[in-house]
Structure formats: C-alpha cells, structure tokens
Amino acid sequence: MIRILNPGLGAAVQDLGRRGLANIGVGRSGAMDRRALRVANAMLGNAEEAAGLEITLGGFSFETLEPVAIALAGADTEATLDGRPLPRWWARTLLPGQVLRMGHSRTGMRGYIAVSGGLDVPEVLGSRATDAKGGFGGHDGRLLKAGDTLTTAAESSGTRALDYGLSPRAWPDLWADGSGETEVRFVPAMEWADYDEKARALFCATGWTIEPASNRIGYRLYGPEMVPTIRRELLSHGILPGTIQLPPSGRPVVQMLDANTVGGYPKLGVVIDADLPLLAQATLGSTLRFREFCAAEARAARREEDDLVSAIRRATSHQRKG
User: Fold this and answer.
1) pTM (two decimals)
2) What angle (nearest 5°) sits at the alpha carbon of residue 141, between those of residues 140 and 142?
3) According to the model, what pLDDT value does residue 156 have?
4) Number of domains in the chain
5) CA atoms within 13 A on the CB side of 138
6) Which of 28, 167, 175, 215 is deepest in the core (most CB within 10 A)?
7) Same domain, 44 and 185
8) Mind giving me the DSSP string for 130-165?
9) H/E element holding 313?
C-alpha cells in the first residue's frame, strides 16, 4: 500500500485506457504518454494493462506502507527517495516508511510510476483509467488527494529486490525532453482538401505554440490563422484522440485522451498514434511542428513502439528473477 502525501497539480490512476466504446460516448482516457507507462510496466514484469500513476508537472509525493517495487518513467521531475536522487527510467524496491518525492518537471509534462502487479482499483468498462470528466474509474473517479491510500498487488514469487535503470546510451529514444520544438506526424483528414496548397504548406511550416489553456482534453495551438478555400457546415461526427480540428478562430486544436467522442469542426488531420506520447510530453509554451505522413507509415511507427517495449521487457527480465 502507498499513501499520497501531496498530489501535486494533478495525479491520477491511469492504465492504457478504454477502447471501442466511442459509439456510446465513452472516451479513451488512460495514460497520455502511453509509451512511458508501458515501459515502466515492462521493467517490473507487469501485464501491459496494469494501472499506475500519472503525475502532471511533478510536485507529487507518497509514503510506502508495505514493501513494493516501483518503476519511474516519463518526465524528468528530479525525483528523490528519502532525499536521495532517484533517476527516471529506474526500478527500485521500496521499504515501509520510505518517501518518494517529485519536484516540478524540468523537462516533459508527465511522470509515471508503475508498481509491482499494478494498482488495485476497480475495473470500470474494461479499464482502471480515471475519467475525471465523467467521474468514474481510477480512485473514486477523481484526481488523487492528500491522504488517499492505494492498494498494490503483491510481488510475484521469485522476484528479487530491484535497483536498476535504463541508460540513455542503450535506450536513447526514451530521453527526449519535451521542451523546445517537437515534431509530430499526422495523416490528412477529409477536410485537408478544403485548403489550397499554400495553406497546407503554411500549416506544416509553422512552429505552433502550445497555449497555457491546453490540458488532457485538448491542446490549443497559437499561430497564423488558417483560412479554408471551401467553407463547410458539418454535422457532429466521430473523432479520435489526435484529431486536429480547426474551429472558427482559424487556429488548430488537437484532441487528446479526455476529449469528446464527437465534434463538428473541420479536421486537418489526425496525429499518428505512435506520436501521441511525444505530444503528451510537449510542454506548455513549447513549439509543435507537423509533418504529413501516410497510414501505412503510421502503422509501422506503432509497431516500432511495440518492439521497443518488448525489447525492454526481454532485456530487463534477468533483473527481476531471483
């Protein structure tokens, strides 16, 4: 068990989210940086769907009430364990009474903590993810508060005490910092053709600034106004996380994991699934740049993520076995 001492700006229980329920108006939710949580679970030998903690912008702390192995992943929050530095991409067995603290994120937006066996919260609609907008899932359907106690599954037999990490030399793709400029790839959507060649080139050439009002529902982008050649009045229709909508302001909004399942604004494209984790770590005020991609390339990029997680699970298996 662990007890939350300080939830920071926003901490919640998340897993890989709910899929296949958009037809009844249930969004995906789940970890914004899916890859980070998958890697953390792989380091502990957890199941892919195991629930962990997502911490936004750091400032988080908890105390362990019983022995538990954790893995720290995602943003660099200068975490400490009993006052001593604990690097990200690190797995460690904690003893009762130890305190893990995260500072405010130096790079990236979201840190993740996986625990051995996953967090034991009720499964709702096939997932343990927190849907704070809908008020269900996770821990009582809400963000965590100081004093909350979370139960963790017992470590499996044959597991030894852990204290190891993933190096930037061996796993360089994990160490992108999420500040400065982030390139994300997108597949054009139906209304992309409503913009002339000049407008489409402007969209891809612009460094779009992520506005402070951005959150898990959507990222608002600031830059030049996009004006369509053809103006359409659209009925509301299904949208996915990563959908790049263009509201009347002429400035894009990228729908994220807590977004609605339908919308009526024109769509420029959809950020490919493999790049949603990059988008999740892009800091407020930093710059996004979009690159056009095709569906076949998008599928290949997702397979690369799967291969990375599988490789880490294999490479770390000897660390977990006594």
Assistant:
1) 0.94
2) 95
3) 47
4) 2
5) 29
6) 28
7) no
8) -BTTTTBSTBTTB---TT-EE-BPPPPTTB---EEE
9) helix 295-315
